[in-house]
Amino acid sequence: MYVFDNYYSFSELVKTAYSLVVTRVFYRNASLLRRPIYIRGLPRITWGKGFRTGYRCRLETFGEKGDTMPKLIIGENCHIGDSVHIAAAEQVRIGNNCLFASHIFISDCSHGDTVAESPSTHPEKRRLVTSPTEIGNNVWLGENVCVLMGSRVGNGSIVGANAVVTKRFPDYCILAGSPARIIKQYNFETLRWEKCS
């Protein structure tokens, strides 16, 4: 069966219809949150109109009981693929019109300070370290990308599959590698992506 620019099997159509009904009833502004979806700390999560997820996504925020300060902020018309995990303890901000492939991890926190803590301490007992993470507008993240705490992916950027973003990057870049580095930047004078020297 052909629906929404895709060919769906009957079972996929039924699952999508069920997810659509649940989304409309329970999740304001979202377009489609495919089930199953795992949401922890919902009062600290905001998303704009048109937000859409794939299957098995995990959105979580950490905070004390009664804490409703937004920590995961997702803009309008963002579409994320299957098995995307986003964890926010301080703040993860995602801009408008972003497209994420599957199996992506985005976080603003880490278990332990690598400078101050002993590696013999059980990871669960280590202090939670945080630093805000930002993804700009019109960003495309490829398959298996990791965006780690304190990182920034600038507006209009593309992050290649399997890249690990560990620092802050300017707007209009193509990033690749582990750790990620700039391989091209968009030149608005020539209207082309150009290799970095």
Strand line-up across the major sheet: 9-12-17-20-22-23-24
Model regions low in confidence, pLDDT < 50 over at least 5 residues: none
Give me the strand/helix succession: EEHEEEEEEEEEEEEEEEEEEEEEE
CATH topology: UDP N-Acetylglucosamine Acyltransferase, domain 1
Tell me how many strands there are. 24
Radius of gyration computed on alpha carbons? 18 Å
Helix content: under 10%
Give the distance, in angstroms, between the N- and C-terminal Cα atoms.
Answer: 49 Å
Give me the secondary-structure topology.
Blueprint: E1 2-3, E2 6-7, H1 10-26, E3 32-33, E4 37-40, E5 45-47, E6 52-53, E7 57-61, E8 72-74, E9 79-80, E10 85-88, E11 92-94, E12 99-100, E13 105-107, E14 109-111, E15 128-130, E16 133-135, E17 140-141, E18 146-147, E19 152-153, E20 158-159, E21 164-165, E22 173-176, E23 181-187, E24 192-195
Parallel strand pairs: 3-6, 4-7, 5-8, 7-10, 8-11, 9-12, 10-13, 11-16, 12-17, 13-18, 16-19, 17-20, 18-21, 20-22
Antiparallel strand pairs: 1-2, 14-15, 22-23, 23-24
Keywords: Transferase
GO molecular function, one term: transferase activity
Protein name: Acetyltransferase
